[in-house]
Amino acid sequence: MIALDARDLAILAALSEDGRMSKTALAERVGLSPTPAWNRLKRLEDAGLIESYHARVDLKKVAPHVTVFLAAELRDHTAERMRAFERAVQDYDEITAVWGLGGGFDYLLQIVTRDIDAYQRLVDDMLDSRMGLARYYTYIVTKAVKGPAPPPFELLARGDT
Fold first, then answer.
1. 103 in the Ramachandran plot: left (φ > 0), alpha (ψ -120 to 50) or beta?
2. Alpha carbons 98 and 148: distance in angstroms, whole number
3. What is the pTM of this model?
4. Nearest-10 Cα torsion for 65, 15, 97, 121
5. pLDDT tens profile 73-124
6. How far, in Å, CA of 133 to CA of 105, rounded?
7. Sign for the pseudo-dihedral over CA of 141, 145, 147, 150
């Protein structure tokens, strides 16, 4: 981890809200002139703190789809088996996010498909593959209540819980 001050956190927060912000607007937002703001931004990028810049797309306006969360339990719990599963999920474009869990399930997968039939075909393929899926539980998203939001940098910096 690199040491971050309040201005670094302000840069991260600003870009988390608007990744298309101009360098001038970013500098104004964090109270710096453009060159120091740009230098800080480059340092944050070079350190790997900024992973990517992208747009959030409203899929409802693009095409019909279904979002499903799949709680996965693996057959084996060896490090090799878990690495194999983690490699295998990379091959499925419909799997848009995966989290390793502690507790009852091993992984939580976010899946976006055209419809439930497409989801079931995906699961059938996963079960037929050698990725080690033993059991799964399906949770269909019926509505988004709170979407992806920028991290609470201010709270993280203070260490509040």
1. left
2. 15
3. 0.81
4. 20
5. 999 999 999 999 999 999 999 999 999 999 889 999 999 999 999 999 999 9
6. 11
7. negative
